[in-house]
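Worked example 2:
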Amino acid sequence: MNDSELLRMKRCLRCGTWWSLRPYACAYCGSAELEWDQASGFGTVRAQTTITRAPDEFWRMRVPYTLVLVKLVEGPTVMGHAEGGTEIGQTVCGQAVAIGDRKVLGFVRTESISHAIPST
């Protein structure tokens, strides 16, 4: 994953609905005219959890860490890492985050960044 591909999602060309998975057709309007597009990365935290028991040695060395579900302004909900202290209802922005030798989707609270949230 590189920074430019971090939040690329399918978007319906007919109705504009965004999809975080890779559908063959838009479930909203039925159109098969989908294209890859860059999402803004801005959204609202809908769920948050702190991981204290990790699934493998790589992540065990990094506990505790925070995972969040974020509803993006474009519509889809995605999961990513977040800063400790991130709470449900906060506005966040996604970005590429290096954890060890891995690059993952991470979210920072918008008060931690200097640019404005795009309007939808």
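Helices lie at 57-60. The chain has two domains: 3-37, 39-112.
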